[in-house]
Specification:
The chain has 86 residues and is mainly alpha-helical. It contains four helices and no strands. Helix 1 (2-11) packs antiparallel against helix 2 (21-51). The two termini are 45 Å apart.
């Protein structure tokens, strides 16, 4: 899409250029970028489901207290499903 957008000034004269070409190609490029951002978001969520989130000392202390009391505390969605507690 970037190549199409940048080739328009080279292929057409200023007066012969299709009037909506620049807007169409810019809009298509923005949509392609949005698709890439969405894919990055989805893949990041998949990684978090498998690997979990980094655990700090404060989080470990909270987990220790939760185990003492008997409440569930999970680091990842995958752990929750494996334990059968939803």
């Amino acid at each position: 899409l970037e190549h199409l957008l940048s080739s328009m000034p080279w292929a057409f004269d200023q007066h012969d250029r299709p009037p909506r070409s620049r807007g169409i190609f810019v809009a298509l490029a923005c949509m392609a970028t949005d698709c890439g951002d969405f894919m990055t978001l989805v893949e990041g969520e998949k990684v978090k489901r498998v690997e979990g989130l980094p655990v700090s000392e404060e989080d470990r202390e909270c987990s220790r207290r939760a185990r003492e009391v008997g409440t569930a505390n999970y680091n990842s969605i995958k752990d929750r499903k494996l334990n059968g507690n939803a």
